[in-house]
Design brief:
82% helix
């Protein structure tokens, strides 16, 4: 296995950590942490899609694109006064 393939195999770990961190952030009572969580979730979606492309995990790719779309939809529907 070449070096780039090995690196992509390990990509699932930062993706997992980013997902857990994002969930922790969006559960915060602090507005700025919830906002950071949104961006970390989007970063985790990108990492999972990259790993899914490498691993041929089509269902994971579709899931991550769907979750990103739902996250963007949720943020766009949030009352700006409550952010």
């Amino acid at each position: 296995m070449d070096t780039s393939a090995q690196w992509l195999d390990w990509l699932q770990w930062p993706a997992m950590l980013a997902t857990v961190l994002a969930a922790w952030l969006v559960a915060s009572n602090r507005k700025n942490r919830r906002n950071e969580g949104f961006w970390v979730f989007l970063a985790s979606n990108v990492l999972w899609v990259l790993w899914g492309l490498h691993d041929g995990a089509l269902a994971l790719i579709v899931l991550q694109v769907s979750l990103a779309a739902l996250n963007i939809r949720g943020v766009s529907k949030t009352d700006p006064a409550k952010k």
